[in-house]
Amino acid sequence: MRILILSGLFFLMIGSVNAQIPVAFPSEYIDFKIDSSYFSINGIYTFQNKTGKNVYFNIEFPFGVNTSLIDSIRVVNLKNLQTVHFKTNQQNISFYLNLLPNDTVQYNIYYRQQLAKVNTYILTTTKSWGLPLNNAVYSLTTNKNIKIKSISMEPDSSKYDLNNITYYWRKQNFTPQADFEVIIEK
Amino acid sequence: MKKIYLTYALTFIGIALIGNPILRPFSWVDKLSFDKNQQWQINLNISGGEIDSMAISSSSGKSKCKVLTIQWEGDFHGLIITTDSLISKVNINPEGDSVSIITYPHYGDSILETFIYGNYKNSNIPKPSKDQVINAFWTTGEYLYHSLCDSTGNMQGVIKGHVYNRNNVLITKGSISINPYLIDLEGRCGLEGFTIQAINISNEGSYSAMFYAQIYSLNQLKICSNLNLCPYYYSSIGTSKITPLDFSLYPDSTIELDIHLLENFTAINKMEAKSNELLKIFPNPIKGGSFHYEIGIPIKATQCKMDLIDMTGRKLESYDIIENAGELQLPSTITNGTYLIQLQMNGKKLFSDQIIVSKK
To answer: Between chains, do B70 and A80 touch, taking CB under 8 Å as contact?
Structure first.
């Protein structure tokens, strides 16, 4: 028994550092769009400094494909309308942020990639922030000519116009358990 | 290599995978030093996401840290690692070695940082002498490198003085209200490439800045546009040559030096232009009863409004925006003049653009 307790304590000590992460990722608003050629993402992401000190951190936006296959990447800080300089890595882009004490900033990030049969936006990595999203709103607009086979999340509502269908998801206190996946007939 | 195969495999079978932001740890070796007994010590700076463990490797082997306790409180967290911090002993050769710090984040791939010094193969850092350490330096060119500096390398002094424009007029906060940095012509903060420090310019035109104790020869003042970015990851929007500043700064000392600009900061105007990527109004001037718009931010997942405001601040019209592009009617009573189009998202003002109404 003593050995078991000691082993447990040892693994707790060398295990994951249960850190109080100084920054939060409380909300995101994303317009997904699928047209005949592209799967595009236009999102607003909020980052919040929870401390009374300056916080520096590194944000990575993962692409499951080589970054060369992603085009039209735009990152804008909505607080000062500055285009953000990002580093292009093999399968992600990353940039550093310096948040002033207790500050909140919003970033607009737009990019698109060639349409595939299975189009996935990874939501489950939200866990890396340690807390659920307070607010998450997603929309998916597709042309009526595009045949959608399945969407991984049941939409809360939808809207039709002459050429497009738009699906909406509105989530609160949201810890994604699955990724956002749209399978189309190709 | 596996990743590259996976990438092409995913593309080939028709899967597009992209995703939400991941908070990544951000760590680097701030200093490598040796004591009298040739025992090494690494000072690490860490910030960002959760870390499971860290390891040190050298030509003698590799070992993980025994216990890693990091309490995030903001700013950077300093961590000192010696061979006693490791599960098994790792020697670092003071004459020359290849030293790697491996960070294992809780999410994502491990992060490797390597530097080679002294007589080791492919070394790009000389062997530190008795009074020297290997120190981290950031350049304005957005990257980190390691080089030698004396043992006071992490100690700072203060320079202060006044800033004058090229007409020898004192610059006040109204003239420069964004991050300026003093650098040399190669984009480094000092001849030997040392740390960049923001300078705060007060209303009275005086400035003060903390600099590491070194010999400096600086000849440019650079303005950075983004207060929310790290100094080494900013967008530079203007640079002016200055009358060269040559000085030696000693630890805990204060010296007074005035900065005289030799050029104007014409590039500041570029800041305004950036909003055009997110909001386009055309034609402008508007000669008819309507105008077209294009908005770059997500519209469907947010509640967006566009307000038409006159120059006294009175709201003339409020449009609900449901598409990223479209045409909007001006109020029939509008008179010729200059107006503001203000974009709101989720009840918060985002930005505005000026329009001119010039109906016949």
So the answer is: no
- Which residue of chain B is at minimal alpha-carbon distance from A179? B19
Task: Give the end-to-end CA distance of chain A in Å, rounded to a whole number.
Answer: 59
pLDDT in tens, B148-163: 777 665 667 788 888 8
- Spatial distance between the Cα atoms of B159 and B199, rounded to a whole number of angstroms: 10
In angstroms, what separates the C-alpha of B13 from chain A's closest C-alpha?
8
CA distance B92 to B134: 13
Using the Cβ of B26 and the Cβ atoms of chain A, whether some distance falls under 8 Å is answered with yes
Which SS3 state, helix, strand or coil, does residue B345 take?
strand
For the entire predicted model, the pTM comes to 0.69
Query: ω before B283 within 30° of 0 (cis)?
Result: yes
The C-alpha angle with vertex B341 and arms to B337 and B347, in degrees rounded to 5, equals: 145
Distance from the B168 Cα atom to the nearest Cα atom in chain A, whole angstroms:
30
- How far, in Å, CA of B199 to CA of B223, rounded? 10
Give me the residue from A22, A94, A117 closest to B73, CB to CB.
Answer: A22
- pLDDT at site B181: 66
Mean pLDDT of chain B: 77
Residue from B23, B47, B179 whose CB has the most chain A CBs within 10 Å, to mutate: B23
Interface residue B202 vs chain A (CB under 8 A): no
Assess whether pLDDT exceeds 90 at residue B276: no
- Is A97 an 8 Å CB contact of chain B? yes
Domains and CATH numbers, chain B: 21-124 (2.60.40.10), 156-270 (2.60.40), 278-357 (2.60.40.1930)
What integer pLDDT is reported at residue B236 of this predicted model?
52
User: CB–CB of B298 and A23 under 8 A?
Assistant: no
A125:B52 CB<8 A: no
Strands B337-345 and B348-357: antiparallel
- Largest Cα–Cα separation, chain A: 71
- Cα separation of B348 and B304, whole Å? 9
Partner-chain residue, chosen from B18, B20, B297, that has the shortest CB–CB distance to A113: B18
CA distance A40 to B184: 42
Burial letters for B295-317: b for 16+ Cβ neighbours within 10 Å, e otherwise?
Answer: bbbbbbbbebbbbbbeeeeeeee
Q: Are A96 and B230 in contact, with CB atoms under 8 Å apart?
A: yes
CB contact under 8 A, A74 and B68: no
Q: Domains of chain A (ranges plus CATH)?
A: 18-184 (2.60.40.3680)
ipTM over 0.95: no
Q: Would you place residue A136 in the very low, low, confident or very high pLDDT band (cuts 50, 70, 90)?
A: very high
Residue B187 burial (C-beta neighbours within 10 Å; 0-12, 13-18, 19+): middle
Q: Cα B355 to the chain's mean position, in Å?
A: 33
- Give the HSE-up count for residue B295: Cα atoms under 13 Å, Cβ half-sphere: 28
